[in-house]
Specification:
It is built from eleven helices and 17 strands. The chain is an alpha/beta fold and about 350 residues long. The chain has a six-stranded mixed beta sheet with strand order 8-9-10-5-11-12.
Length: about 350
């Protein structure tokens, strides 16, 4: 068991027996258009996995394959050990799906809608107990007898989540679950997802990176149809942080700071900070790994008599990591006189 960045204990990902969702060399083509290319990953029982990527990256295609709505062109997809092509109906029984836009029946009461969805899932004698469970889990007690048309966005989203849970699925797939919600509603949905993770495997597809950071054990990043990253928040940062970096700000001019840094041979690149107060100059310093740059910079500071305003090692934010993983170029920082605004991830 390892501690992940959201504070939950993550499950081990080393045993195939615990695998709930598996993509094995999966590719999907629409004519000559590549939607997915050779994607392989395993998602374990009890994990919350954030599925990230730019628009058109292949996230939706992967979700459609997992939920049996489309077939892979190559490779294998399994849910609970069952092949999605060979056992599609059994796979669908194992999955609860919350799409970004659920076709709710506005003229129905919340209770009527959930009963209808339970009947569609052939729950029969289990319907009453399952209805009671999802109502309590999703906090719908106060709106059961209300028409869906008069519900707030937050309660509509909770109702949608309840329909995805009504048949007690082992795997829950959530597409933009907090879209359009206010901060309090987002906190409520976030806590609900955390609570469900004790019993469910959850795949969370979203463009809101902070949501992933708050609830996910692992992050899968897809770009141009390929899986470009798979790991915890720290794993992703390690993957894109190919240089050591320190931020130094002094009371003085940018030229003064640049000239001083040019004297340190191990400085590979620098990027000026364009967001400093008047009279202060800041620089992101990228350097060779096998060097004590803190010591070198301290010597330079003493030699030049600089008044230091800020001095610390840098750490990429989730947003910076995502950008580096998904942009087309190499992701190397600009050199020389390039400018960079300070981020919150240091």
């Amino acid at each position: 068991m390892t501690k992940c960045f959201n504070g939950r204990e993550s499950v081990s990902i080393t045993t195939k027996e615990d695998t709930m969702v598996e993509l094995e060399h999966v590719s999907k083509y629409y004519g000559v258009t590549r939607a997915l290319e050779d994607v392989t990953c395993r998602i374990q029982k009890g994990e919350i996995v954030g599925f990230l990527g730019p628009n058109g990256a292949g996230k939706s295609t992967a979700m459609k394959i997992i939920t049996t709505y489309t077939a892979p062109s190559r490779g294998k997809a399994r849910v609970g050990g069952l092949d999605v092509l060979e056992r599609p109906l059994d796979v669908r029984r194992m999955i609860g799906y919350l799409p970004e836009t659920v076709p709710l029946y506005d003229d129905m009461l919340v209770r009527e809608y959930l009963e209808f969805m339970g009947q569609a899932r052939h729950l029969n004698g289990k319907l009453k107990s399952r209805l009671n469970w999802v109502v309590e889990a999703c906090g719908l007690e106060s709106v059961l007898q209300r028409k869906i048309s008069v519900l707030s966005k937050g309660f509509k989203q909770r109702t949608c989540l309840a329909q995805a849970l009504i048949h007690d699925p082992e795997v829950l797939i959530l597409d933009e679950p907090t879209s359009g919600l206010d901060p309090l509603q987002i906190i409520g949905i976030r806590q609900l997802i955390r609570n469900l993770a004790h019993e469910k495997t959850i795949i969370l597809s979203t463009h809101i990176l902070s949501e992933v950071a708050n609830v996910a054990d692992r992050i899968l990043v897809v770009n141009q149809g390929r899986l470009v990253a798979d790991g915890s928040f720290d794993d992703l940062i390690d993957q894109v942080s190919d240089k050591n970096s320190i931020y130094l700000a002094i009371r003085g001019t940018r030229k003064e700071l640049q000239d001083g840094l040019k004297g340190i041979q191990e400085v590979r690149e620098t990027a000026a900070d364009s967001d400093t107060p008047r009279g202060v100059s800041g620089m992101h310093v990228y350097y060779s790994e096998k060097i004590d740059m803190v010591k070198k910079l301290n010597e330079l500071i003493r030699e030049r008599g600089w008044e230091v305003v800020e001095f610390h090692r840098e750490r990429l934010s989730l947003e910076d990591s995502f950008i580096r993983l998904t942009r087309a170029d190499s992701g190397k920082p600009d050199s020389g006189a390039s400018e960079k605004k300070k981020g919150g991830g240091r």
